Amino acid sequence: MKLARMLAALTVGTAMAGCTLTPARDVSVSTARSPLPRSAAPAASTPTAPRVRLVAWHGPVEQLFVHPLVLRPRLAFTTDSLGQGFADYFITAREFGRILDQLWRNGWTLVDPRRVAAGDVRVPPGRKPLVLQEDDVNYYAYFNGRGLASRLVVAPDGTVKAEYDGRLTDEDVVPMTDAEVALHPEFSADGAKGLLAVTAYEGFFGEHNLKDPAARQRLQTLVRALESTGWVIASHTYGHINLSADSLSVIARDTARWKAAAAGLLGPVNILVYPFGARPDAAARKLLRDAGFTVQYDIDVRPARWTEDGVVMMSRRHVDGYAFANPTAMASFFSVKAVRDPLRP
Ligand SMILES: [Zn+2]
User: Fold this and answer.
1) Which domain holds residue 171?
2) How far is ligand 1, taken at its centre, from the CA of residue 126, in Å?
3) Which of the residues 97, 116, 130, 206 has the least number of beta carbons within 10 Å of its own beta carbon?
Protein backbone atom coordinates (compact mmCIF):
# COMPACT_ATOMS: atom_id res chain seq x y z
CA MET A 1 0.00 0.00 0.00
CA LYS A 2 2.67 2.45 1.04
CA LEU A 3 4.80 1.63 -1.94
CA ALA A 4 1.84 2.00 -4.26
CA ARG A 5 1.07 5.38 -2.76
CA MET A 6 4.67 6.45 -3.00
CA LEU A 7 4.85 5.48 -6.62
CA ALA A 8 1.51 7.12 -7.26
CA ALA A 9 2.77 10.35 -5.79
CA LEU A 10 5.98 10.06 -7.70
CA THR A 11 4.32 9.56 -11.02
CA VAL A 12 2.38 12.65 -10.34
CA GLY A 13 3.93 14.97 -12.78
CA THR A 14 3.66 12.42 -15.51
CA ALA A 15 2.97 15.06 -17.99
CA MET A 16 4.98 12.86 -20.19
CA ALA A 17 2.45 10.33 -19.20
CA GLY A 18 0.05 13.23 -19.28
CA CYS A 19 0.61 13.10 -22.98
CA THR A 20 -0.13 9.40 -23.28
CA LEU A 21 -2.97 9.48 -20.82
CA THR A 22 -4.44 12.66 -22.11
CA PRO A 23 -3.37 13.39 -25.66
CA ALA A 24 -3.20 17.04 -26.51
CA ARG A 25 -6.46 18.19 -27.99
CA ASP A 26 -7.15 21.02 -30.32
CA VAL A 27 -8.78 23.27 -27.81
CA SER A 28 -9.29 26.91 -28.46
CA VAL A 29 -9.17 29.21 -25.52
CA SER A 30 -12.63 30.36 -24.63
CA THR A 31 -13.05 34.05 -24.08
CA ALA A 32 -16.57 33.59 -22.79
CA ARG A 33 -17.21 34.36 -19.16
CA SER A 34 -17.36 31.26 -17.09
CA PRO A 35 -20.35 30.22 -15.02
CA LEU A 36 -18.36 30.49 -11.83
CA PRO A 37 -20.44 31.04 -8.75
CA ARG A 38 -19.95 34.47 -7.24
CA SER A 39 -18.47 33.02 -4.11
CA ALA A 40 -15.59 31.65 -6.15
CA ALA A 41 -14.53 35.11 -7.28
CA PRO A 42 -11.43 36.35 -5.49
CA ALA A 43 -11.37 39.54 -3.50
CA ALA A 44 -10.43 42.53 -5.62
CA SER A 45 -7.14 42.72 -3.80
CA THR A 46 -5.66 41.49 -0.57
CA PRO A 47 -5.13 44.15 2.07
CA THR A 48 -1.39 43.59 1.95
CA ALA A 49 -1.12 43.81 -1.85
CA PRO A 50 0.96 46.79 -2.91
CA ARG A 51 -0.71 49.13 -5.37
CA VAL A 52 0.24 48.13 -8.89
CA ARG A 53 -1.57 49.53 -11.96
CA LEU A 54 -3.26 46.72 -13.89
CA VAL A 55 -4.73 46.35 -17.36
CA ALA A 56 -7.02 43.63 -18.75
CA TRP A 57 -5.41 40.61 -20.45
CA HIS A 58 -7.38 38.82 -23.18
CA GLY A 59 -4.97 36.15 -24.41
CA PRO A 60 -4.30 32.61 -23.15
CA VAL A 61 -2.80 32.26 -19.69
CA GLU A 62 0.22 30.04 -19.03
CA GLN A 63 0.12 27.86 -15.92
CA LEU A 64 3.14 25.98 -14.50
CA PHE A 65 3.34 23.47 -11.69
CA VAL A 66 6.10 22.12 -9.47
CA HIS A 67 6.26 19.83 -6.44
CA PRO A 68 7.70 20.56 -2.99
CA LEU A 69 11.34 21.51 -3.46
CA VAL A 70 14.41 19.38 -2.90
CA LEU A 71 16.50 21.23 -0.32
CA ARG A 72 19.37 18.73 -0.10
CA PRO A 73 20.00 17.27 -3.58
CA ARG A 74 22.55 14.74 -2.35
CA LEU A 75 19.91 13.12 -0.14
CA ALA A 76 17.21 13.13 -2.82
CA PHE A 77 19.06 12.27 -6.03
CA THR A 78 20.35 8.83 -5.09
CA THR A 79 20.80 6.00 -7.56
CA ASP A 80 17.78 3.95 -6.38
CA SER A 81 14.34 4.20 -7.96
CA LEU A 82 13.11 6.73 -5.42
CA GLY A 83 16.12 8.91 -6.20
CA GLN A 84 15.32 8.65 -9.91
CA GLY A 85 11.73 9.68 -9.12
CA PHE A 86 12.96 12.80 -7.32
CA ALA A 87 15.21 13.65 -10.25
CA ASP A 88 12.40 13.16 -12.77
CA TYR A 89 9.48 14.86 -10.99
CA PHE A 90 11.01 17.38 -8.57
CA ILE A 91 13.23 20.44 -8.78
CA THR A 92 15.62 21.87 -6.19
CA ALA A 93 15.28 25.04 -4.14
CA ARG A 94 18.28 26.44 -5.98
CA GLU A 95 16.57 25.75 -9.33
CA PHE A 96 13.29 27.25 -8.17
CA GLY A 97 14.99 30.42 -6.94
CA ARG A 98 16.61 30.94 -10.31
CA ILE A 99 13.36 30.14 -12.10
CA LEU A 100 11.47 32.75 -10.06
CA ASP A 101 14.09 35.33 -10.86
CA GLN A 102 13.93 34.54 -14.59
CA LEU A 103 10.13 34.54 -14.62
CA TRP A 104 10.28 38.03 -13.18
CA ARG A 105 12.95 39.19 -15.65
CA ASN A 106 11.12 37.63 -18.61
CA GLY A 107 8.00 39.69 -17.94
CA TRP A 108 5.74 37.21 -16.16
CA THR A 109 3.35 38.25 -13.37
CA LEU A 110 1.57 35.85 -11.03
CA VAL A 111 -2.22 35.92 -11.31
CA ASP A 112 -5.03 34.27 -9.34
CA PRO A 113 -6.29 31.01 -10.91
CA ARG A 114 -9.85 31.97 -9.93
CA ARG A 115 -9.55 35.10 -12.05
CA VAL A 116 -8.23 33.01 -14.95
CA ALA A 117 -11.19 30.63 -14.61
CA ALA A 118 -13.55 33.61 -14.59
CA GLY A 119 -11.89 35.18 -17.66
CA ASP A 120 -11.06 38.29 -15.66
CA VAL A 121 -7.26 38.49 -15.77
CA ARG A 122 -5.34 41.71 -15.16
CA VAL A 123 -1.61 42.36 -15.30
CA PRO A 124 0.68 45.38 -15.00
CA PRO A 125 1.02 47.04 -18.44
CA GLY A 126 3.49 45.20 -20.68
CA ARG A 127 3.65 42.08 -18.52
CA LYS A 128 2.24 38.54 -19.09
CA PRO A 129 0.05 36.51 -16.69
CA LEU A 130 1.22 33.24 -15.18
CA VAL A 131 -0.41 30.90 -12.67
CA LEU A 132 2.11 29.20 -10.40
CA GLN A 133 1.01 25.88 -8.94
CA GLU A 134 2.45 23.39 -6.49
CA ASP A 135 1.10 19.82 -6.42
CA ASP A 136 1.13 17.38 -3.49
CA VAL A 137 1.89 20.01 -0.84
CA ASN A 138 1.50 17.19 1.68
CA TYR A 139 5.10 16.40 2.63
CA TYR A 140 4.46 12.68 2.38
CA ALA A 141 6.12 10.25 4.77
CA TYR A 142 8.37 9.00 1.95
CA PHE A 143 10.08 12.43 1.94
CA ASN A 144 11.61 11.58 5.35
CA GLY A 145 15.38 11.66 5.20
CA ARG A 146 15.40 12.57 1.50
CA GLY A 147 16.25 16.26 1.80
CA LEU A 148 12.79 17.80 1.46
CA ALA A 149 10.87 19.87 4.02
CA SER A 150 8.50 18.10 6.39
CA ARG A 151 5.69 20.66 6.71
CA LEU A 152 4.57 24.26 6.33
CA VAL A 153 4.23 26.37 9.47
CA VAL A 154 3.39 29.92 10.43
CA ALA A 155 6.49 31.51 11.95
CA PRO A 156 6.27 33.76 15.03
CA ASP A 157 6.41 36.82 12.73
CA GLY A 158 3.28 35.61 10.89
CA THR A 159 5.00 34.57 7.66
CA VAL A 160 4.70 31.06 6.23
CA LYS A 161 7.88 28.99 6.31
CA ALA A 162 8.83 25.39 5.75
CA GLU A 163 10.24 23.12 8.42
CA TYR A 164 13.36 21.11 7.62
CA ASP A 165 15.09 18.90 10.17
CA GLY A 166 13.27 20.63 13.03
CA ARG A 167 14.19 24.16 11.91
CA LEU A 168 12.29 26.82 9.99
CA THR A 169 13.55 27.60 6.51
CA ASP A 170 12.65 29.97 3.69
CA GLU A 171 13.63 27.31 1.15
CA ASP A 172 10.36 26.10 -0.33
CA VAL A 173 7.82 27.22 -2.89
CA VAL A 174 5.62 29.34 -0.60
CA PRO A 175 8.27 31.33 1.31
CA MET A 176 10.47 31.80 -1.78
CA THR A 177 7.53 33.05 -3.87
CA ASP A 178 6.37 35.34 -1.06
CA ALA A 179 9.90 36.80 -0.90
CA GLU A 180 10.12 37.31 -4.67
CA VAL A 181 6.79 39.20 -4.70
CA ALA A 182 7.89 41.31 -1.72
CA LEU A 183 11.02 42.21 -3.68
CA HIS A 184 9.17 42.88 -6.97
CA PRO A 185 5.55 44.02 -6.40
CA GLU A 186 4.86 43.86 -10.16
CA PHE A 187 5.56 40.10 -10.06
CA SER A 188 2.04 39.72 -8.63
CA ALA A 189 -1.33 41.07 -9.75
CA ASP A 190 -3.88 41.65 -6.98
CA GLY A 191 -1.49 40.05 -4.50
CA ALA A 192 -1.86 36.63 -6.19
CA LYS A 193 0.76 33.98 -5.45
CA GLY A 194 -0.45 30.60 -6.66
CA LEU A 195 -2.43 27.40 -6.33
CA LEU A 196 -1.56 24.70 -3.78
CA ALA A 197 -3.04 21.27 -4.59
CA VAL A 198 -3.31 18.79 -1.72
CA THR A 199 -4.36 15.18 -1.32
CA ALA A 200 -5.66 14.11 2.10
CA TYR A 201 -4.51 10.51 2.70
CA GLU A 202 -1.60 11.78 4.80
CA GLY A 203 -3.32 14.94 6.03
CA PHE A 204 -2.49 18.40 4.69
CA PHE A 205 0.70 20.47 4.38
CA GLY A 206 2.76 18.01 6.43
CA GLU A 207 0.31 17.68 9.33
CA HIS A 208 -0.24 13.95 9.04
CA ASN A 209 -2.58 13.40 12.00
CA LEU A 210 -5.83 15.26 11.41
CA LYS A 211 -7.30 13.81 14.60
CA ASP A 212 -4.77 15.68 16.75
CA PRO A 213 -6.42 18.91 18.02
CA ALA A 214 -3.06 20.74 18.07
CA ALA A 215 -2.41 19.76 14.45
CA ARG A 216 -5.89 20.96 13.47
CA GLN A 217 -5.27 24.28 15.17
CA ARG A 218 -1.92 24.69 13.38
CA LEU A 219 -3.61 23.91 10.07
CA GLN A 220 -6.38 26.45 10.61
CA THR A 221 -3.76 29.10 11.40
CA LEU A 222 -1.70 28.07 8.38
CA VAL A 223 -4.66 28.10 5.98
CA ARG A 224 -5.67 31.58 7.16
CA ALA A 225 -2.10 32.80 6.64
CA LEU A 226 -1.90 31.25 3.15
CA GLU A 227 -5.26 32.58 2.00
CA SER A 228 -4.59 36.08 3.30
CA THR A 229 -1.32 36.22 1.37
CA GLY A 230 -2.64 35.28 -2.07
CA TRP A 231 -2.49 31.46 -2.03
CA VAL A 232 -5.46 29.38 -3.21
CA ILE A 233 -6.02 25.76 -2.16
CA ALA A 234 -7.17 23.01 -4.53
CA SER A 235 -8.08 19.37 -4.12
CA HIS A 236 -5.76 16.78 -5.67
CA THR A 237 -8.25 14.01 -4.65
CA TYR A 238 -8.07 12.16 -1.32
CA GLY A 239 -5.89 9.27 -2.41
CA HIS A 240 -4.09 10.58 -5.53
CA ILE A 241 -6.40 8.37 -7.55
CA ASN A 242 -6.44 7.95 -11.31
CA LEU A 243 -9.65 9.64 -12.42
CA SER A 244 -9.41 8.24 -15.95
CA ALA A 245 -9.21 4.62 -14.74
CA ASP A 246 -11.17 4.40 -11.47
CA SER A 247 -14.88 3.57 -11.36
CA LEU A 248 -17.56 6.11 -10.52
CA SER A 249 -18.10 4.49 -7.12
CA VAL A 250 -14.38 4.68 -6.29
CA ILE A 251 -14.34 8.34 -7.35
CA ALA A 252 -17.47 9.07 -5.29
CA ARG A 253 -15.97 7.44 -2.20
CA ASP A 254 -12.64 9.23 -2.66
CA THR A 255 -14.43 12.57 -3.06
CA ALA A 256 -16.50 12.04 0.08
CA ARG A 257 -13.35 11.20 2.03
CA TRP A 258 -11.59 14.33 0.73
CA LYS A 259 -14.49 16.55 1.73
CA ALA A 260 -14.70 14.97 5.18
CA ALA A 261 -10.97 15.50 5.74
CA ALA A 262 -11.12 19.11 4.49
CA ALA A 263 -14.20 20.05 6.54
CA GLY A 264 -13.39 22.63 9.19
CA LEU A 265 -9.80 22.95 7.98
CA LEU A 266 -9.59 24.22 4.39
CA GLY A 267 -12.70 26.32 3.83
CA PRO A 268 -14.62 26.04 0.55
CA VAL A 269 -12.54 24.48 -2.25
CA ASN A 270 -13.92 24.53 -5.79
CA ILE A 271 -10.78 23.69 -7.80
CA LEU A 272 -9.69 20.13 -8.56
CA VAL A 273 -6.26 19.23 -9.96
CA TYR A 274 -6.30 15.79 -11.63
CA PRO A 275 -3.57 13.45 -10.30
CA PHE A 276 -1.32 12.33 -13.20
CA GLY A 277 -3.23 14.87 -15.31
CA ALA A 278 -5.61 11.97 -16.00
CA ARG A 279 -8.95 13.22 -17.29
CA PRO A 280 -12.16 11.63 -15.97
CA ASP A 281 -14.92 10.72 -18.40
CA ALA A 282 -18.03 12.91 -18.70
CA ALA A 283 -19.96 11.07 -15.98
CA ALA A 284 -17.11 11.35 -13.49
CA ARG A 285 -16.52 14.98 -14.39
CA LYS A 286 -20.18 15.72 -13.63
CA LEU A 287 -19.95 13.83 -10.33
CA LEU A 288 -16.96 15.98 -9.38
CA ARG A 289 -18.78 19.12 -10.54
CA ASP A 290 -21.78 18.23 -8.39
CA ALA A 291 -19.40 17.77 -5.46
CA GLY A 292 -18.46 21.45 -5.92
CA PHE A 293 -15.42 21.25 -8.21
CA THR A 294 -16.50 23.76 -10.86
CA VAL A 295 -12.91 24.31 -12.00
CA GLN A 296 -10.83 21.28 -13.03
CA TYR A 297 -7.26 21.04 -14.30
CA ASP A 298 -5.51 18.54 -16.54
CA ILE A 299 -1.92 18.65 -17.85
CA ASP A 300 -0.97 19.79 -21.32
CA VAL A 301 1.96 21.44 -23.02
CA ARG A 302 0.06 24.58 -23.93
CA PRO A 303 -2.38 26.83 -22.11
CA ALA A 304 -6.05 26.00 -22.58
CA ARG A 305 -9.33 27.03 -21.01
CA TRP A 306 -12.75 25.86 -22.06
CA THR A 307 -16.13 25.13 -20.50
CA GLU A 308 -17.70 21.69 -20.60
CA ASP A 309 -20.76 20.45 -18.69
CA GLY A 310 -20.67 23.58 -16.57
CA VAL A 311 -17.05 22.96 -15.57
CA VAL A 312 -14.25 25.39 -16.41
CA MET A 313 -11.45 23.14 -17.69
CA MET A 314 -7.87 24.39 -17.80
CA SER A 315 -4.45 22.93 -18.58
CA ARG A 316 -1.12 23.50 -16.94
CA ARG A 317 2.37 22.26 -17.72
CA HIS A 318 4.94 20.58 -15.51
CA VAL A 319 8.32 22.00 -14.48
CA ASP A 320 10.57 19.12 -13.38
CA GLY A 321 13.49 16.97 -14.46
CA TYR A 322 11.54 15.71 -17.45
CA ALA A 323 10.72 19.24 -18.56
CA PHE A 324 14.41 20.18 -18.26
CA ALA A 325 15.10 17.59 -20.96
CA ASN A 326 13.27 19.84 -23.44
CA PRO A 327 14.78 23.30 -22.90
CA THR A 328 13.03 24.81 -25.94
CA ALA A 329 9.62 24.25 -24.36
CA MET A 330 10.70 26.19 -21.28
CA ALA A 331 12.59 28.95 -23.10
CA SER A 332 9.90 31.64 -22.82
CA PHE A 333 9.90 31.11 -19.05
CA PHE A 334 13.53 30.41 -18.19
CA SER A 335 16.79 29.01 -19.49
CA VAL A 336 17.15 25.39 -18.36
CA LYS A 337 20.90 25.68 -18.76
CA ALA A 338 21.03 28.66 -16.42
CA VAL A 339 18.76 27.26 -13.72
CA ARG A 340 19.86 23.63 -13.67
CA ASP A 341 21.30 22.55 -10.31
CA PRO A 342 24.88 21.23 -10.66
CA LEU A 343 23.92 18.47 -8.18
CA ARG A 344 21.14 17.21 -10.48
CA PRO A 345 22.14 13.87 -12.03
ZN1 LIG B 1 0.13 14.69 -7.69
Assistant:
1) 2-21+52-336
2) 33
3) 97
Ligand 1 centre and the CA of 137: distance in Å? 9
In DSSP notation, 47-104 reads TTPPP---EEE-S--EEEEE-SPBS-HHHHS-SSHHHHHHHHH--BHHHHHHHHHHHH
| Residues in CB range of 129: below 8 A, 6 or more apart | 57, 61, 62, 108, 109, 110, 111, 116, 121, 123, 189
In the chain, which residues have pLDDT < 70? 1-50
**Distance, CA 117 to ligand 1 centroid (Å)?**
21
How far does the centroid of ligand 1 lie from the alpha carbon of residue 47, in Å? 31
Note the pTM of the prediction, 2 decimals: 0.87
Tell me whether residue 159 is in a domain: yes
**How far apart are the CA of 85 and the centre of ligand 1, in A?**
13
Residue-wise pLDDT tens digits, 268-313: 999 999 999 999 999 999 999 999 999 999 999 899 999 999 999 9
